Amino acid sequence: MPYWRLSGYYFFYFASLGALVPFWGLYLQSRGFDALTIGQLLAILSGTKIIAPMVWGQIVDHSGRRMPMVRLGALLAALTFLAVFIANGFWSMAAAMLLFSFFWNASLPQIEAVTFNHLRQRHTRYALVRLWGSIGFIIVVILLGLELDQRSFNMVPAWVLILFTGVWFSSLTIPDSAPVSGNHPAPPLRILLQRPGVLGFFAACFLMQLSHGIYYSFYSIHLESAGYSSVAIGNLWALGVFAEVLAFLVMHWLLERFGARQVLLWSLGLGVLRWLLIGACVEILPVQILAQILHAATFGTFHAAAIHVVHHAFPGRTQGRGQALYNSLSFGAGGATGSLIGGFLWSEAGALVTFGIAAVSTALGLMVAWRWVDRD
User: Fold this and answer.
1) Rounded to whole angstroms, what are the CA distances from 158 to 49, 86, 162, 169, 307?
2) Residue 64, CA distances (Å) to 112, 133, 249, 365 in order
3) Which listed residue, 78, 107, 186, 247, has the most CB atoms within 10 A of its CB?
4) Which fold has domain 1-171?
5) Which of 38-42, 87-91, 221-225 has the highest mean pLDDT?
6) Do the first three CATH levels of 1-171 and 189-376 match, i.e. the same topology?
7) Do residues 70 and 115 make contact, with C-beta atoms less than 8 angstroms apart?
8) High-pLDDT (> 90) share of the chain, %
């Protein structure tokens, strides 16, 4: 089990996410792009997250070799990112972002499959590897945030390029691992996707990430409009990711004790509470602290349990496409849908209604998971 080599990949991958998600919009703004254009450019990142994992997963599951494609994707992400430095208009920036985000988003589901194959029978300990991604995110958000207090946003691409290079170097150290084979060959993917438990699981994931799409797009705006300083906003975001790390530390015990289905149900139920607290009680700091601590459930335990479900639902050479479907339908389609819904509602309906829709979406996900997700 190459624990530290796998952890290094997660560290650099999510560290690069920590440079992109909080700061890329501000970098584009510093380059003179207006709000509408920035929204269109950022939508590219979600769009490629829907398509790229499926393309990469199809190629990998037919070849059976994951790490060569992961290394190629990491290298091409770093090389195509260089186009950002010469992009000087909307179309050139859009092309650069389309290229690098396609390869950047393509490889993560394959690393998830490789990690589970290395874990073998210790699959409940996935979270102990994945937590290093959260640590990388926290470190970069803090360090780059401090750096940007003193320097311009033009340094953001340099940080991202360095971290993309780190992703590639770390991928070179990870050995490939064949899927764990049972006594019978895996059924075709189309047969797996006809199972009610699989369809219900993906529907619940879509609904959960729809609510997070609203959160990621409008939580900072919500806090700022309520009078929170930029330091307080940053600290609340960091608190949420720190709570996620703590959840990963105990995730193996939760899965072994309660099973993935039960953890998913708890996570969805706590998600309903979290969005209501954010929408209705933004002025009360202790309530917002509690809401951010609940990120341990709405993302940390939910994601770790979902990855566990995907690993078992998609055996053998269907693993790559199974992980790709999870990423595409939840983080891609769900997150993008949530952002669009939030954008339509925010100005006219306000924060309470918008986060109320997030709570309703999560409640629907809870009902779907309770009715259709298979027991362990």
Assistant:
1) 23, 13, 6, 17, 32
2) 15, 26, 31, 33
3) 107
4) Growth Hormone; Chain: A; (1.20.1250)
5) 87-91
6) yes
7) no
8) 42
Q: What is the 8-class DSSP label of residue 325?
A: H
pLDDT at 184 (0 to 100): 55
189-376 CATH: 1.20.1250.20
**Domain regions of the chain by residue span:** 1-171, 189-376
Tokens for 226, please give them.
């309520």
b/e burial code for range 120-129 (CB count within 10 A of at least 16 → b): eeebbbbbbb
Distance of alpha carbon 277 from alpha carbon 290, whole angstroms:
9
Question: Is the pLDDT reported for residue 181 higher than 60?
Answer: no
Look over the chain and give the mean of its residue pLDDT values, rounded to a whole number. Answer: 87
CB 370 within 8 A of CB 263: no
d(CA 269, CA 367): 10
pLDDT, tens digit, 9 for 90 and up, residues 275-302: 999 999 999 999 999 999 999 999 999 9
Say if residue 326's pLDDT is above 70: yes
**279: which 2 tokens?**
């929408």
Buried b (16+ CB within 10 A) or exposed e, 158-197: ebbbebbbbbbbbbeebeebebeeeeeebeebeebbeeeb
The conformation of residue 174, written as its DSSP 8-state character, comes to: P
Give the DSSP letter of residue 173: T
